[in-house]
Amino acid sequence: MALESFAFNVAEKVLEKVTSYAYQEICFAWGLQGELKKLEDILLTVKAVLLDAEEKQASDHQLRVWLAKLEDALYDAEDVLDEFECENQRRRVLQLYGTTIKKERVMTHSFVKESDVIGRGKDKENIIRLLQDSSDGGQISIIPIIGIGGLGKTALAKLAYNDERVNNHFQLKMWVCVSENFDIRNLIEKIIKSTEDGMNYGVEKLSKMEMEQLRRFLQEIIGDKKYLLILDDVWNDDLMKWNELKELLCTGANGSKILVTTRNNTVASIMGTTPTYELKGLSNDECMDLFTRWSFKEGQANQYQNLLKIGEEIVKKCKGVPLAVKTLASLLFLKTDESYWKSIRDKYLFEDMQGLKHLRTLSIYLCKSLISLPQNFKYLTALETLNITRCKNLNLTMEEGKDDQDLARFRLQKLALVGLPKLVEFPEWLLRGSTNTLQI
């Protein structure tokens, strides 16, 4: 295949990903719609250039060097988009196992039990160091903490907020959960109410104040104190709104700090005066520690080694996101039925097959609750080895899948079906497309 044709196929594949609904959804949540549109435009241009390149002579050395570099760049782009796909799966965990979806976001508070937070000791020290830094030239420093939902941004902010060194460093501390409603008056009221003077004045009186009165009251409370303000869970990416609020906060002593938590890179860029602090996922060991705390009573985990092994598989699927670990672990608390644990593990495995389309080997073992393979099993077109063992309730007839043309793309090399009492005939739909590749 000509190099330009190969690059064209890769570009087309990347463009297909970029224009998919999943990526549109993620980019909307992260405020990257503009960047995604630019990438789409660039890829369309690249495709046009590649079509033109096919008409050039194959011996054009400069052209071939350029095409080779382009191919590498396109593969890098595909890797980045695959990371986006993993992010989409993490979000699905919370959607799949959450109890109730609410229209309003839960308001946060500043209290935290430090022993309940795992794996954030180093991050806490880093944030405290930034809060104590005095090299800001007399300006108020605004420090953004960014990370996907469920990583523990709020927990980290709480750890720093309640540390004794921070208490001693600042004369005034305020905590406000901003969420999606970035209304200036509402935020000023919240900031005032988070102070002792504000609470003593009375919530009802504050609600009757004019905006000018609120401004004066806030600036009287702050005065010339060195203050720390936490703005938790910020979604606003409107620069004008942020500047309006910032003008009201440009008071207080040198060294005052505003700590912002957000999921959105654009928000961090707009608000931050220091480099963004990007929060990473927990290590596998830290996730396992958290998982056992939420799935077993204290001291009981070692009594269930069989369940711990299943738990390790579940934890790996959570990709270091503490909230995902706690959500799944809480479903298993006080439950010691091995089949139930496996059903939780398997339910997540099969819920988003499209995200596993590069999977080459799949083994399904002792899944008593598995009745049928999901309809989107067809996305596993890279699958080479399939091993299904002792799934007593699994029905592989899948009548509704027999006419699905997508199943013809399977290229299985090894197939093992053992201990399937409901298997009454060989699954012809599963073999379609594997006639020439299956090793007998």
Would you write up a description of this structure?
The protein is α/β, with parallel strands linked by helices and 440 residues long. The chain has 4 domains: 3-97; 114-278, Rossmann fold; 281-337, no CATH class; 352-440, no CATH class. It has 18 helices and 8 strands. The strands form 2 sheets. Strands 2-3-4-1-5 form a 5-stranded parallel sheet, sandwiched between helices. Strands 6-7-8 form a 3-stranded parallel sheet, with no helix packed on it. Helix 8 runs parallel beside helix 11 and helix 14 (284-295) runs parallel beside helix 16. The chain starts with a helix and ends in a 9-residue tail after the last helix. The model is unreliable at 1-6, 96-103 and 399-403 (pLDDT under 50). GO terms for molecular function: ADP binding; ATP binding. Residues 36-87 form a coiled coil. Keywords: ATP-binding, Coiled coil, Nucleotide-binding, Plant defense, Repeat.
Secondary structure topology:
Layout: H1 3-18, H2 21-30, H3 33-53, H4 61-97, H5 121-132, E1 141-146, H6 153-161, H7 164-169, E2 172-179, H8 184-193, H9 196-201, H10 203-207, H11 211-222, E3 227-234, H12 239-249, E4 257-262, H13 265-271, E5 277-278, H14 284-295, H15 305-317, H16 322-332, H17 338-351, E6 361-365, E7 385-389, E8 414-418, H18 428-431
Parallel strand pairs: 1-4, 1-5, 2-3, 3-4, 6-7, 7-8
Helix pairs in contact: 1-3, 1-4, 4-16, 5-6, 8-11, 14-15, 14-16, 15-17
Relevant terms:
three-stranded parallel beta sheet; disordered N terminus; Rossmann fold; elongated; alpha/beta; 8 strands; 4 domains
- Give the count of structural domains: 4
Q: Report the span from N to C terminus.
A: 31 Å
Count of helical regions: 18
Largest sheet: 5 strands, parallel
**H/E element order:** HHHHHEHHEHHHHEHEHEHHHHEEEH
**Strands, count:** 8
In the CATH hierarchy, the third-tier topology of the largest domain is known as Rossmann fold
User: What is the radius of gyration?
Assistant: 27 Å
Shape: elongated
- Side-by-side strand order of the widest sheet: 2-3-4-1-5
The percent of residues in helical segments reads 40-55%
CATH class of the largest domain: Alpha Beta
CATH level 4 superfamily of the largest domain: P-loop containing nucleotide triphosphate hydrolases
What is the architecture of the largest domain at the second tier of CATH?
A: 3-Layer(aba) Sandwich
